Amino acid sequence: MLNANELIADAKAPVAAPTEGPFVHPDILAEDPVLEIDRFDFWYGEKQALFDVSLNVPRGKVSALIGPSGCGKSTLLRSVNRINDLIDGIRIGGAMRLNGDSIYGKHVDVIELRKRMGMVFQKPNPFPMSIYENVIYSLRIDGESRRGVLDEVVERSLRSAALWDEVKERLDASALELSGGQQQRLCIARAIAADPEVLLMDEPCSALDPIATAKIEELIFSLRGEYTVLIVTHNMQQAARVSDYTAFMYLGNLIEVSPTNVMFLKPARRQSEEYVTGRFG
Questions:
Q1: Residue 165 CB neighbours (<10 A)
Q2: Is the per-residue pLDDT at 212 higher than 70?
Q3: Distance (Å, whole) CA 114 – CA 94
């Protein structure tokens, strides 16, 4: 993983870049996208929060959204699984596609759409039931009752979430008895149990202590290759440690998306360079 302190300390002057529109590194264009965001606009009532955002999220990679508070990164993330639909007065423009299927098409079943994605929130939100039942919750909803299948999914998901060895002897215990960091890893296990096409994470470490944060970061880094992850983080060092690609947003606009080492060593846009070197934000 990248050393964010060294990257930020060694940041160089930005290279030449187009003066109009976001800078998209050519490496992004060479990737196979799981999620395609195409000229997406978003309004809360009369206030526009996102402006003409286009972004590809590569298959099997970890992509991070960074930017100052209020820049629109969480709004964009929550637009992917249409959680924002629950807010009165919102409207959108443009399009999003998950593996080629429209996310905002007229005939999209939003419940079925959300089953294709995993979501991990800022604060751990385990259900008030056993560790075992938390993991297989999505399978229960779909009517799966075969014990052998459920047992296999529980072990596989908890191993993927680096939690199996800590809880394998107490799967029937309440998930609420776990520590905060363990609860968040359980939520990740619950999310990946459904084999999501993309795993969305909205500042998953913001409520955790440094030790728990380190474990979650190691977990996110280990998921690359097997899962596609899109993570919002306010922590630039975290983005540098866990992600393959980083997108910088500012005032509702996508400014730049580049491989993470490029973003932190040699960003293409002056706004990106000023943000990653701590001059604002």
A1: 9
A2: yes
A3: 19
